[in-house]
């Protein structure tokens, strides 16, 4: 399943916090996160999403034909096992 978030108008610090919170709370059924960061007003948000953000759920980062969007492929959430 695909989820989309829009970071337009966010400061870099706000965007980072929102993106990490979204990654932490995404259910396991979400395997793609489409991040709309824009491209007309600088590339700070794009650089944050494409190069700086680190999270255990991110398995791959895809650039699209749209320079204002990045797709994050997500790993499934690991659940604990009973012993």
Automatic annotation (TrEMBL):
InterPro entries per the UniProt record, alphabetical: Smr_dom, Smr_dom_sf
Gene3D superfamilies in the cross-refs: 3.30.1370.110
Residue span(s) of domain Smr: 2-75
Domain of life: Bacteria
Name of a matching Pfam family: Smr
The protein, known as: Smr domain-containing protein
């Amino acid at each position: 399943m695909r989820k989309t978030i829009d970071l337009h108008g966010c400061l870099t610090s706000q965007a980072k916090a929102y993106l990490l919170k979204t990654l932490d709370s995404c259910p396991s059924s979400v395997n793609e996160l489409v991040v709309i960061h824009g491209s007309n007003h600088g590339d700070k948000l794009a650089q944050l999403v494409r190069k700086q953000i680190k999270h255990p759920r991110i398995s791959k980062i895809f650039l699209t034909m749209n320079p204002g969007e990045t797709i994050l492929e997500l790993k499934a959430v690991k659940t604990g096992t009973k012993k």
